[in-house]
TrEMBL record:
Species in which this protein is naturally found: Alishewanella agri BL06
Active-site residues, as the UniProt record annotates them: K82
Keywords of this entry: FAD, Flavoprotein, Membrane, Nucleotide-binding, Transmembrane, Transmembrane helix
Gene3D superfamilies per record: FAD/NAD(P)-binding domain
Binding of L-tryptophan, residues: E345
InterPro entries per the UniProt record, alphabetical: FAD/NAD-bd_sf, Flavin-dep_Halogenase_NPB, Flavin_halogenase, Trp_halogen
Protein name: Tryptophan halogenase
Spans traversing the lipid bilayer: 12-33
Length: 499
C-alpha cells in the first residue's frame, strides 16, 4: 500500500555538516533517494570537533552500503589500516596489551578459546593470549593484506577498520551527497521557530532565509542547537563513572613506517591517543580538569609526541553522557548532539553510523512519529549504555598508584550490569553479551585479561584435553598464524598499491 497521506514526511533538513552531517546526508540520499527532499545547512565559520579519526570494522559496511571504493576512500581521506588498539600503562605502568579485532584462537565445542588458554596456563603453559591473535601478530609486524579467509585453514582473515582524516572524510561525503541531489545551504542559524504543538517548524538564517521541513536532524555537535537548546530533551550525566571532561588535540608530523593500530597511552591524569595517518599523526590527551589543569595537560601531551607538532593544541570540553531523548518530536540528534563518549574505543564515528542506520530503519512515513521515536530512543539508550560500560571497564581495572584519578576510578561504584559481568568473569571466566551489543566476547576477554584480571576458574570442558593435546592445539595455531603473517606484505606497500 502506497503512502499518499498529505501528512507524509518529504522534506528533511540536516542542521550542521562535519562528519555527522555528511554521513547522514550520504546514507539518506543513497537509500531514500527520490523519496525525500534533502537539504543540509552549515556554516564555514563554525569549526567541527574533528578528532574522530579512528574507527572500528563496522565502518566497512557503511562505506560498502554507499558503494564507495576502498582504494579511492583511502586516497581521498589520507587513510590507513587499523587492526586494533594498543593500551599502554592501563593495568600497571609499563604494561601493554591490545584489543585486537577479530578472533583469538579457535573455539572448541561449546567453550570459547580463552577457557582452553586458561587451562593451559594452569598446567604450566606460559604463552601469551595474543600469540593466537592473527590481528595482533600482523599489527606488531606492521603487515596487512585484505583476505576473507586464511588459505587452507578454517580461520578468518584479518579484521580491520581505518584511520582517516575526519575533515577529509566529511568533504568526500559532501561531494558524494551533492552528486545525489543533496542541497547544501551556507549560513548561520539566527533562530528556531516552533509550531504550537512544540514541533520544530523552521530555522531562520542570519540572512533572513527560512528553512522549513517535516523532519529535522540535529548534527550541530556539542551545541545541540535543536535537540537541547530548543526542545530540551534532557541529558544523562555520566561523569561520576567517567570523570574526564576535557581533551587537547594536536596533529604532528607523520612517522614512517605507519603502524596499523591506534595507541591509547595512560598518563598521570588521563590518557593519550596516537592515530597514524598517511600525511600526519593525530594526537590528543583526554583528562579530568578535576585532577589535572590545562597547562599540565598541555605539557603532558606535547612532551609525549613522537614527532614535531604541526599546530597549537586545541581544547575540547565535554560532559560524558547521553541525550535522554535522542529523537524528540520531529527532531533526531546524530553525532555529538546526541551525547558524548570519550574515544577510548574509537566509537565516535560508529555512533554516528549506527544512528544513521537506525534512522533509515525507523524512517517515518507520516508526521506521527511517536512509536518510531520511542523505539529509536530505546535502541540508542541500550547502545550508549553498553559502550559506556566497556569504557568504564578500562578505567576501573587499573592498578596504578601514581595519581588520584586512577584511585578514584578503581574505587568508584559501578553500574549494576558491569558489576555483574565482572563478578561472573572473576568466578567463572564467562562473558555473555546481548545479541545486538557492539563489543564481542573476545573484546571483553582481551581487556579483562590484558588488565590482569585472572578468573578463579574456567569451563570444565577445557580439562577434557590433556596437556599434550593442548600443547599440540596451540602449536598448530601458532604455526598457521606465523606462516600467514610472514607471507603478508607490509602495510606501507599495501598503501602504496592503493594510491
Amino acid at each position: 500500500m502506497k503512502n499518499t497521506d498529505l501528512n507524509q514526511v518529504r522534506r528533511v533538513l540536516i542542521v550542521g555538516g562535519g562528519t555527522a552531517g555528511w554521513m547522514t546526508a550520504a546514507m539518506l540520499a543513497r537509500i531514500l533517494g527520490e523519496q525525500i527532499d534533502l537539504q543540509l545547512v552549515e556554516s564555514d565559520t563554525i569549526g567541527t570537533v574533528g578528532v574522530g579519526e579512528a574507527t572500528i570494522p563496522a565502518i566497512q559496511h557503511f562505506n560498502a552500503a554507499l558503494g564507495i571504493n576502498e582504494a579511492e576512500f583511502l586516497r581521498e581521506t589520507k587513510g590507513s589500516i587499523k587492526l586494533g588498539i594498543q593500551f599502554e600503562n592501563w593495568g600497571r605502568q609499563g604494561d601493554s596489551y591490545m584489543h585486537a579485532f577479530g578472533p583469538v584462537g579457535r573455539q572448541l565445542g561449546m567453550a570459547s578459546f580463552h577457557h582452553f588458554w586458561l587451562a593451559a596456563q594452569a598446567k604450566g603453559d606460559n604463552s601469551s593470549f595474543w600469540d593466537y591473535s592473527l590481528n595482533y601478530q600482523a599489527a606488531k609486524a606492521g603487515k596487512f593484506s585484505p583476505q576473507s579467509q586464511l588459505p587452507n585453514s578454517p580461520l578468518p582473515g584479518l579484521q580491520y577498520a581505518y584511520h582517516f582524516d575526519a575533515g577529509l572524510y566529511a568533504a568526500f561525503l559532501r561531494r558524494y551527497s551533492e552528486q545525489r541531489r543533496v542541497k547544501r545551504i551556507e549560513g548561520l542559524i539566527a533562530k528556531v521557530e516552533q509550531k504550537p504543538s512544540g514541533d520544530i517548524a523552521a530555522v531562520v538564517l542570519t540572512d533572513g532565509q527560512v528553512l522549513s521541513a517535516d523532519l529535522f536532524i540535529d548534527c550541530s555537535g556539542l551545541r545541540a542547537l535543536l535537540i537541547e537548546q530548543t526542545l530540551a530533551a534532557g541529558y544523562d550525566n555520566w561523569q561520576h563513572w567517567l570523570p574526564c571532561d576535557s581533551a587537547l588535540a594536536v596533529p604532528s608530523e607523520a612517522r614512517y613506517p605507519i603502524v596499523p593500530y591506534t595507541r591509547a597511552i595512560a598518563h598521570g591524569g588521563g590518557w593519550q591517543w596516537r592515530i597514524p595517518l598517511q600525511h600526519r599523526t593525530g594526537n590528543g590527551l583526554v583528562y579530568s580538569s578535576r585532577f589535572l589543569d590545562d597547562e599540565q595537560a598541555k605539557q603532558t601531551l606535547l612532551s609525549n609526541l613522537d614527532a614535531p607538532a604541526l599546530a597549537e593544541p586545541r581544547k575540547i570540553s565535554f560532559v560524558t553522557g547521553r541525550r535522554k531523548q535522542q529523537w524528540r518530536r520531529n527532531c533526531v540528534a546524530i553525532g555529538l548532539s546526541s551525547g558524548f563518549l570519550e574515544p577510548l574505543e574509537s566509537t565516535s564515528i560508529h555512533l554516528i553510523q549506527s544512528a544513521v542506520v537506525r534512522l533509515v530503519q525507523c524512517f517515518p512515513a507520516t508526521q506521527d512519529m511517536t512509536a518510531l521515536s520511542n523505539e529509536f530512543n530505546r535502541q540508542s539508550q541500550q547502545e550508549f549504555e553498553a559502550i559506556r560500560d566497556f569504557i568504564i571497564l578500562h578505567y576501573h581495572l587499573n592498578q596504578r598508584t601514581d595519581h588520584p584519578l586512577w584511585q578514584y576510578c578503581r574505587e568508584m561504584a559501578l553500574p549494576d550490569a558491569l558489576a555483574q559481568r565482572l563478578e561472573l568473569f572473576r568466578h567463572s571466566a564467562q562473558i555473555f553479551r546481548q545479541q545486538d551489543e557492539l563489543f564481542t566476547e573476545v573484546a571483553w576477554q582481551q581487556v579483562l585479561l590484558g588488565q590482569n584480571l585472572l578468573p578463579a576458574s574456567y569451563h570444565p570442558l577445557a580439562d577434557s584435553l590433556t596437556k599434550a593435546q593442548l600443547t599440540g592445539f596451540f602449536a598448530d595455531l601458532k604455526q598457521v598464524i606465523s606462516k600467514t603473517v610472514a607471507a603478508l606484505p607490509s602495510l606501507q606497500s599495501f598503501l602504496q598499491s592503493q594510491s
